[in-house]
């Protein structure tokens, strides 16, 4: 068995036993809250005709969940023995907690949901990576579309005013194509765009690496197969040469050992 953890699989940190125990206990509940957060946020953004009362309670729920994540971060920081090490390894969590403006990105904790797929799959590491990359791309695309629509649709001179516009903008941005027919005009929308551009480059890099590793593996496998075949053929040739040599030696000995025939008389 390999000691390398599979993607999405949490490994206990021997330097932080209390922190690891807390994360193991809260991982699933926080993932459930992230799902509920994403559903409520999508409802709030997409249901433009919702009643004021519903909009108020959705907003309350979003802030409550954000508060739970903030408490979780503070608790983990308090449990960590090496504070600066924890802060350095959880900069994304700190940004999300410190900037409520981008709190919807906390839904990216949904990546832990793919652990269930990881535990039930019996494929190579590359196959698991493909599942994570695909799931992460869809999740990032959905969150970015909702975030940019929420920031842009009521802004003056906005070109992203519907969810379809937001999806199209997300697709062209994350793929680094950038047609320019839709673009954010607000500060928050541009922050989302910048994060999505960086994420798109990173995802393309991962996908390229996965494809490259597949080609390298296939080429290496073909070369190994050719090498094995060549070695087998060389081995057979050596055996045949050895047999021929043995037969020649046997015939030479037989000729030397046999008596010479009498000369014919005239």
Percentage of residues in strands: under 5%
Q: pLDDT average, as an integer?
A: 78
Number of strands: 0
**What sequence of helices (H) and strands (E) makes up the elements?**
HHHHHHHH
Total count of helical runs of at least 4 residues: 8
Biggest sheet record: none
Overall shape: it is elongated
Radius of gyration: 33 Å
Task: Give the termini separation.
Answer: 88 Å
The helix-and-strand class reads mainly alpha
- Summarize the amount of helix as a percent range: over 70%
Low-confidence stretches: 1-9, 110-122
How does this model look, in words?
- Helix content is 72%, strand content 0%.
- It is an all-alpha fold and 266 residues long.
- The model is unreliable at 1-9 and 110-122 (pLDDT under 50).
- Its main location: membrane.
Short characterization:
This protein is an all-alpha fold and 266 residues long. The protein has helices at 17-46, 52-79, 83-89, 91-98, 114-120, 125-152, 163-174, 187-257. The chain contains 8 helices and no strands.
């Amino acid at each position: 068995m390999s000691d390398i953890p599979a993607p999405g699989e949490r490994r206990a940190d021997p330097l932080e036993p209390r922190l690891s125990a807390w994360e193991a206990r809260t991982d699933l509940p926080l993932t459930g809250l992230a799902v509920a957060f994403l559903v409520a946020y999508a409802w709030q953004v997409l249901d433009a005709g919702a009643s004021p009362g519903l909009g108020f309670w959705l907003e309350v729920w979003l802030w409550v969940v954000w508060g739970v994540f903030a408490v979780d971060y503070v608790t983990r920081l308090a449990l960590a023995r090496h504070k600066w090490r924890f802060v350095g390894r959880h900069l994304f969590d700190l940004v999300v907690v410190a900037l409520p403006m981008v709190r919807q990105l906390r839904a990216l904790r949904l990546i832990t949901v793919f652990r269930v797929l990881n535990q039930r799959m019996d494929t190579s590491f590359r196959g698991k990576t493909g599942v994570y990359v695909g799931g992460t791309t869809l999740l990032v695309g959905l969150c970015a579309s909702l975030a940019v629509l929420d920031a842009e649709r009521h802004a003056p001179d906005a070109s992203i005013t519907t969810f379809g516009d937001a999806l199209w903008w997300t697709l062209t941005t994350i793929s680094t194509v950038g047609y320019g027919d839709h673009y954010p005009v607000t500060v928050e929308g541009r922050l989302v765009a910048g994060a999505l551009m960086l994420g798109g480059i990173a995802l393309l890099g991962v996908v390229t690496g996965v494809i490259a590793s597949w080609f390298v593996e296939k080429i290496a496998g073909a070369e190994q197969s050719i090498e094995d075949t060549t070695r087998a053929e060389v081995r057979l040739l050596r055996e045949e040469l050895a047999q021929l040599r043995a037969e020649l030696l046997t015939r030479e000995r037989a000729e030397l050992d046999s008596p010479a025939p009498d000369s014919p008389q005239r």
